[in-house]
Structures are given as structure tokens and as C-alpha cells.
Amino acid sequence: MIELEGVPELVDPVMVAAFEGWNDAGDAASTAVAHLHREWKGEVFAALDAEDYYDFQVNRPTVFLENGVRKITWPTTRLSVVRVGGDKPRDLVLVRGIEPSMRWRSFCNELLAFAHELGVEMVVILGALLGDTPHTRPVPVSGVTSDPDLARTMDLEETRYEGPTGIVGILQEACTHAGVPAVSLWAAVPHYVSQPPNPKATLALLNRLEDLIGMRVPLGELPEDARAWQVGVDQLAAEDSEVAEYVQTLEEARDTAELPEASGEAIAREFERYLRRREPGTGPGSGPGVATDGGDSAFLREAGGGRTRPPKPEKPEKPERPGPGPVPDAESAPDPHAGDGGGDGTADGNGPADGPGGAAEGPETTDGSPGAPDGTEGSGAVPPDAPDGGSEEK
Which single residue of 62, 69, 165, 317 could bond 337 by disulfide (Cβ 3.0 to 4.6 Å)? Predict the structure, then answer.
């Protein structure tokens, strides 16, 4: 039994988790949780024992000086709580760490024990994957769950994925077996500009999280960062005609696929978000936000640290085969998850040699996140744990 001293009774708590590594293309997911911690002034109340779950040759500790004293920071997973007031108060339990190297079942059981002790009503796990999506269009965010009832009531996709998975998939299934409602939100990051940070993808995750839990999320300067990131990538892509042509093919494929959906539901979602942002702030740090069509985030390496402006994006990688191709079905989709739960878990973001769908099939990436294999350029990224039929826009 976990005893939590000093943690007050929470109001309708939701656990929001993200893990650095394979499931975190462009650091989009972990940066989103770090943003919530900073904006809502989260208080860390627990950290898992690093010795139990991490291989220190894979995720090495770091040494730093504090007032002339040498100290060591160990790779781990930390839990913090944020109290959000307002007319409809709802508290969050934030989980931010690194994908563990070993003992995944024990890792998930320990997190679920915290969730049970705190009375968590739902777990939302954030992730990001590489896909064939243009940086000039809104970031696709897919919501998936293993719970058929939850899929119906919250308009989510029921997962039909089969294949290798990472800690995001393992934690979601652990929640399902424990009877805890769980949802995974996945943002698609352009594979040709995969270097972190990707503030546009982070903002897209926060916008979708806001819709899911019915809370107004303070965005701060994230929309501005997203616009600056896109302008930077535009300039770099314009310098290379081959990359520019490839981006254009992705845009055409995406626009064609989205024509049937340019209606009702998507417009209503954006209007509801706009109305929420016009309401008075709810809780600490909730200043006025700007609803954008993409997603964005500040580059926050440490949850409690200072804010760092996103660096200039690196030059986009040249695509090997520019040109739209067929969208793969769910069985052939590139897997965004990492590892098999054993000692070879790729917590440092370096995926296994064979990668999802075979590393030889996809473009190499700098962050180790799974990329889309050549020849699968379509209307966007294939969402992880997608239902049968793949990820084409509906």
C-alpha cells in the first residue's frame, strides 16, 4: 500500500502521463506534460526508484554543481499534482519520466497504485509518432482506447492494433485490466523534420487534451512558438526544391483526404474551444489563450525550469521517394511504440534495430522515434493502435 502524506484530497482527478523515448517524437508529449506542470505550478510528491526500472548504461545519470556541491540526477519518473480552481474545479496528477528499461509490469502497477490511492477517475497518456504529414497543415491527433464503452461515449477510436508496443500501450492495457478508464492521444510529427522540439505538435496535444477533459488549458506563448517553428521550417524547405516538392505532394494528399470532413464536427470543436478561451481564467496560470489550427509548446526540458525559446529547426531531411502512395492498413502501419517490456527498452529514444515495420523501410530519424516507411505517404500519419482500416481521415 502506498501512503501519500501531504497530498490533499483531490477533486475529480485525471492522471496525465507522458514518457520520453520511442513514444515521444519531437519531444512533443513530454513537453506537453512539462508545460502543464509549469503553467499550473505543479508540486512533485513522488518519484519512482530509478534502480528498479532503468539501465544506467542506456539512460545515464548526470552530474551538476549546486552552490559548489556536486550532485547527481538519476533518470526516473516523477509524479506531481496541480490544483485547478474555478467554477468547475478538477485536479490533475501529472506523470513525466523516461520509458523504463525493464520491469514494465511492475512499473505500471506502481503507477496504478498511486492512481488508486489518489482516486484518479481517468488516465490520459500522451504520445507522438512520426508520419507522412505536412508541417504546413494542422497536426493530426488521434484518440484511442481499449474500452468500447469509452470509445462510444467520448468519440474515440477503439484500438485494433496488433504488434510490438511500448510503455504507452502497456500502461493503457494495464489500466483497462484494472478497470481504470484510459485514453491515449497521439500527435503525428512530420518525419522529414523530426528533430525536437516540435511546439506545433505539443500545442495540438494540449488542445485535444482540453477537449477531452473539459478544462481550459493555459497556453501562454505556445501559439507564438508554433508559428515561429512553422516559419522556420518553411524557410528551410524553400531552400531545397526537392523537399519543397515533397511537402507539396503531402499537402495535396492531405487536403484531398480531408475534403469530406471539412464540416460540422471539426468546425464545432474549434468554435467550442474558442468560446472556452473567452471565459474568465480557471485556476493558477490560466491567462488568455489563442486557439490555433495547429499545436505548439515551449521547449521545456525540466518541468520546473525556466522557459527556453525553440531553437531554429534543423534542415529538413530529403525524402527518398517524394510522392503520395497508398495509406497502409492497421496491420502494416508503422508502430509508434517501443520495446517489448524487457531489458532492451529504448528509454533513451533509440529504437530497436529492426524498428516498427522494419527500420530499413523508413527514413532514419535523429530522435529514434518510429518513422513512416517509404511509399506510405498519404493523408497523414497512421495513428498508433488504430482500428481496422488504417488512419485515413474520415
Answer: 165
Which one-letter DSSP state was computed for residue 236? H
Q: Which amino acid is at 19?
A: F
Q: What is the DSSP letter of 360?
A: G
Q: How far is the C-alpha of 92 from the C-alpha of 270, rounded, in Å?
A: 24
Q: Which residue has the higher pLDDT, 7 or 379?
A: 7
Identify the DSSP state of 353. Answer: S
C-beta atoms surrounding 119 within 10 Å: 13
Q: What's the CA gap between 35 and 198, in Å, rounded?
A: 13
Residue 340 pLDDT level (bands cut at 50, 70, 90): very low
Q: Is pTM, for the whole model, over 0.70? A: no
Sheet with strand 182-190: strands edge to edge: 43-47, 78-82, 92-98, 14-20, 122-131, 182-190, 141-145, 157-158
User: Angle at Cα 334 formed by Cα 164 and Cα 258, nearest 5°?
Assistant: 135
Pairing relation of β-strands 14-20 and 92-98? parallel
Angle subtended by helix axes 264-278 and 199-213, to nearest 10: 90
d(CA 195, CA 198): 7
Chain centroid to CA 99: 13
* Measured distance CA(178)–CA(155) in Å, rounded: 22
- Under DSSP, the state recorded for 387 is P
Least confident of 127-136, 171-180, 344-353: 344-353
**Cα(92)–Cα(16) distance, integer angstroms:** 7
- What pLDDT, in 10s, does the model give residues 172-208? 999 999 999 999 999 999 999 888 999 999 999 999 9
Rounded Cα–Cα distance for residues 273 and 291 (Å): 7
Q: How do residues 356-372 score in pLDDT, each as one tens digit?
A: 333 333 334 444 444 44
Write out 280-338 in H/E/C secondary structure.
CCCCCCCCCCCCCCCCCCCECCCCCCCCECCCCCCCCCCCCCCCCCCCCCHHHCCCCCC
Contact at 8 Å (CB) between 27 and 197?
yes
